[in-house]
Specification:
By secondary structure, this protein is mostly helical. The chain has a domain of about 60 residues. It is about 85% helix and about 0% strand. It is built from 3 helices and no strands. Helix 1 packs antiparallel against helix 2. The longest helix has 28 residues. The mean pLDDT is about 90. Keywords: Sporulation. Its main location: other. Pfam families: Coat_F. This is Coat F domain-containing protein.
Length: about 90
């Protein structure tokens, strides 16, 4: 079963991807009007990502001081647990 931590971190990754997509779109916009609309969307996406990040950090789901290696090991451990749970459901 997927837990709150997995859902929160998935939401955080999605929010980060959304911010990156809007940033790319702003840079590639053909008109000033489109750039302005996309820039506003980018700002809202950044604010949403920050709220999810703060929630994850507050709950202890995300440690901003964790090294990339520690994050990778934690993600591998979480993925392994989910795979075991899925396997046990069959």
């Amino acid at each position: 079963m997927i837990d709150d931590r997995a859902i929160t971190l998935d939401l955080l990754n999605t929010a980060k991807a959304e911010v990156m997509a809007y940033a790319r779109a702003v840079n590639e916009a053909a008109t000033p009007q489109l750039r302005e609309v996309l820039a506003k969307q980018l700002q809202m996406a950044q604010e949403a990502q920050e709220r999810v990040f703060n929630f994850a950090k507050k709950k202890g789901y995300y440690n901003a001081n964790t090294s990339p290696e520690q994050m990778l090991n934690s993600d591998i451990q979480s993925a392994t647990q989910v795979l075991h749970q899925i396997t046990n459901l069959r």
